[in-house]
């Protein structure tokens, strides 16, 4: 009977092979979970990098295509104050775009898109400004099309307006616009 009890006690314990096998399976599962976690982090990083292209890009495209399509002409300036000070318009890359619109009565009105860091609590971004039709004085940077771009460049290439918007992660969106009049 004592021999049977010893054998029974011995059979309740795990062998070294069984413990090694269980540890190997556990470590394999842990490695798979770590790989899945790293993959999810990589996808999240890619999503965050591309979020400017998927969220701000379509909204900017919609606005720019509608506004540039209805403009009669445009001029480029280095700064918003350059327009007010009647400085010669730029022919190269600039951060300010002044758009000219024809009113139903035959008169013209102007608006400005500028990549700037306006005074006050507003962050750097692409802003819309009204221009007074009588004095051609600039209004405040009223609203931002987007505050996420790192840079916005307006340029003229063979008479065609190009808008290059650089996102916060270096991604670039380029729009082609209307011909300069």
TrEMBL record:
Keywords: Membrane, Transmembrane, Transmembrane helix. The keyword Transmembrane applies. It comes from the Bacteria. The chain crosses the membrane at residues 12-37. This is Prepilin-type N-terminal cleavage/methylation domain-containing protein.
């Amino acid at each position: 009977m004592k021999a049977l009890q010893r054998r029974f006690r011995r059979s309740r314990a795990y062998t070294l092979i069984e413990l090694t096998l269980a540890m190997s399976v556990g470590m394999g599962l842990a490695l798979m979970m770590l790989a899945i976690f790293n993959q999810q982090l990589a996808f999240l990083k890619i999503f965050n990098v591309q979020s400017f292209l998927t969220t701000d890009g379509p909204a900017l495209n919609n606005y720019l295509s509608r506004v540039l399509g209805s403009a009669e002409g445009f001029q480029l300036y280095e700064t918003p104050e350059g327009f007010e000070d009647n400085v010669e318009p730029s022919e190269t890359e600039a951060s300010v775009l002044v758009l000219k619109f024809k009113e139903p009565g035959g008169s013209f009105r102007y608006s400005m898109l500028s990549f700037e860091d306006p005074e006050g609590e507003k962050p750097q971004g692409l802003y819309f400004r009204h221009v007074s039709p009588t004095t051609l004085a600039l209004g405040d940077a009223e609203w931002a099309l987007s505050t996420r771009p790192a840079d916005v460049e307006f340029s003229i290439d063979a008479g065609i307006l190009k808008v290059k918007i650089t996102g916060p992660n270096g991604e670039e969106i380029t729009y082609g616009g209307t011909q300069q009049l």
